[in-house]
Amino acid sequence: MCVVFPSLIIWSCQTLKEPVVIFIECVAIYACVHLKLTGFTVRYVLLAASSILLLYPFRFYAAFIAAIAAGVSLMMPQFGKWGSSVKGAIAIGVLVIPFAVSSGMLARSQAQIEAFDTERIQKFRKDVAKNQGSGVVTQFDMRTSTGFVMGTLVGAVHLLLAPFPWQLGGGSVRMIMTLPELLVWWWLFFAGLIPGLWHAIKTKFSEISPMLVFIVALGLLYSMMFGNVGLVFRQRAQLLPWLLIFAIYGLEMKQLKKVLKQRQQMMGRPVAVGIAQNYRQGA
């Protein structure tokens, strides 16, 4: 990571809470994935609940998104394990909700949530874009349905791939210095992330559902609020742990196909096809 993505290490050191937030998010989703795989386990229920509560002082919306990811993914039907995963979701709710209510966390965040509307989104996008070297001024009106959809789509593209080559010339020296790692990320995105995510959704959707819900929810929030390339570049760091998992999985699948193709040529097609089928069944 230090070699391939040095900016993430630098920014994590500058904002001390950033690595803590990412770590707690990882722990929360890790616990949810284990609950999906193994069913109800007290250890992982406690780990997920405590991680969600610990997230709140650092970033309250991340705590809500982690709670939503836990609830939605564990409530999804799963052959043979649905009852035990539902128990996990209920147990997490029993632990988190009373504490959030009694401590005043829910009441404090309720006002912020109620104030979060399209007018505030529009104002935030303009504020972070105005008089900033890395600001991106868009003409989409987030208060209309068409503008909201288009603005969110543009924000999502920037969240995943920015900065783009035409934005580097007008950016700061720090933005230009991200070019080497940006080239690596673009290659990982198209060569590994897209095929890896697609294959994982087709073959392991239930197991990866906590990660998917968290990525989509947090990514949607950041895409709606997009207005600055530098800001969205740093926000992508919160999604990178999960995106890199799918990217490496995609690269592994590509390498496996090459190996199987070589074995087809060496041993003959019937044997190689049998090896591929056994691998898929084992996976």
Shape: globular
Count of DSSP-assigned helices = 13
What's the number of structural domains? 2
Alpha-carbon Rg, integer: 21 Å
Query: What low-confidence regions span 5 or more consecutive residues with pLDDT below 50?
Result: none
Describe the fold and architecture:
The protein has two domains: 12-116, no CATH class; 118-251, no CATH class. The mean pLDDT is 82. The protein has helices at residues 6-14, 17-38, 42-58, 60-75, 82-102, 105-115, 118-129, 145-161, 165-168, 173-176, 179-224, 229-267, 269-282. The protein starts with 5 loop residues before the first helix and ends with a helix. It is mainly alpha-helical and 283 residues long. The radius of gyration is 21 Å and the shape is globular. The chain has 13 helices and no strands.
What keywords describe this structure?
single chain; 283 residues; mainly alpha; 2 domains; 13 helices; 0% strand
Structure at a glance:
This protein is an all-alpha fold and 283 residues long.
